[in-house]
Amino acid sequence: MTPIDILIMAAGKGTRMKSRLPKVLQRLAGRPLLHHVLDQAAHLQARSATVITGHGAIEVEAACAGAARADGSFDLKFVRQEPQLGTGHAVLQAVPHLRDDGTAVVLSGDVPLTQADTLRALVAASGGEQLALLTVTLPDPTGYGRILRNADGAVQGIVEHKDANGTQRAIAEIYSGIMAVPARLLRGWLARLTNDNAQGEYYLTDIVAMAVADGVPVVAYHITDALQVAGVNSPLQLAELERAHQLRQARALMEQGVRLADPARFDLRDDTRTGARGELLCGQDVEIDVNCVFTGRVELGEGVSIGAHCCIANARIAAGAVVHPYTHIDGEKAGATVGEGALIGPFARLRPGAQLGREVHIGNFVEVKNSTMADGAKANHLAYLGDATVGERVNYGAGSITANYDGANKHRTVIEADVHVGSNCVLVAPVTIGAGGTVGGGSTITKSTAPGALSVARGKQVSIANWNRPKK
Ligand code: UD1
Ligand code: CA
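A: This is the predicted complex of the input protein with calcium ion.
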């Protein structure tokens, strides 16, 4: 096998994005476009990848360095192209890094959805000897380079839209911007490029006619899926590719039996905070209602039901649990777990380190952070549990909170099994409520309580009989 050296063109400005961020760092499924392209290098088991940067070079290089560490083995290099004088000029900058024994695969940093199989087939078509172009037929080829063929159908060259005559513009087969070419041949052709054309640019596409003149076979590897070569130039195109990518992921899940209420209203994203890839692992008979966003690695056990409008990141939800609409679960790095048969939400919030046992109930406007709740514990309304250890069958009343932060340090609250905490209590940590104890509603508990005790810590009720209310 010929070694593969990837060249990624990423010097362009992306004016139409109207963004401060370099175009190749705009996100698709939560991750920069360029990371998706670097993934392709990893899938191809490339020997090296050279990113050609220009606009926003420092930012782009910094963003790649992190991605490459995550993705593995190829040698990652950068070259700068300043000024940007065309795609041929861009690739020329990388030539000093190319080794003659390799096949160069030219990719664009703004074309994120090319599949590994397609690139493998393109490399195979090149066979270490030929120039292989990835082509596609578009209903509206305006703006693209057209593939010129002779009467026998052999590829003769590429003409750019701006240089093309009327007959040539009628050709619907276009060059995708992706090619595989033996490096030793590429080097020679690039040296001979001129900028004598409508745009005054050095066109990489001019090497096709050079190959033909040199008697090097040119093969067009034609695909029908235009999405794989679609570039991002505007916010609208970015959103269109996002939807297409999400639909692809949704379909794959549905093929495994996951029931999505609407595959067009489903999102699974990578998590740049943790580096976790978007990954949704589902047991049998999982149901997901509309408009849910999953981020990072999420596991849904058998029969789990996720209501509409939930955001769930880095979490494990065990079999039979029901997550009602508008619930926000974000495990970040620590993760969040929901036990079998638990009921969560609507409008619940689980934060990092929330570990809920079987049959736990978390109701509306309840926040749980860095806390374990044992089997059967319930917090049904308007409550906060932070840095708490909650025992089995505890009932935690509406409006109650753990005061876990003294302004400098966090402290733990321990609520032992079978405790009943009334409504509107403040448990000032560190504090332990002994097993089976009861805390009267409205109490502020600052001292640990004995098992089985009733603890009340609030102003005594005063009632004045026949009270005359002030009158105007
Ligand atoms: C190029 C092809 C065209 C093809 C089209 C597919 C040439 C001359 N034309 O068009 O045949 O149909 O892609 O999308 O190659 N870039 C640089 N430096 C430069 C110029 C461009 O890094 O000096 C980068 C851009 O950032 C982009 C990629 O190269 O990632 C392609 O450039 P773009 O201007 O989008 O393509 P065209 O030249 O219009
Ligand atoms: Ca251009």
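The chain has a mean pLDDT of 96. The chain has two domains: 4-229, 235-455.
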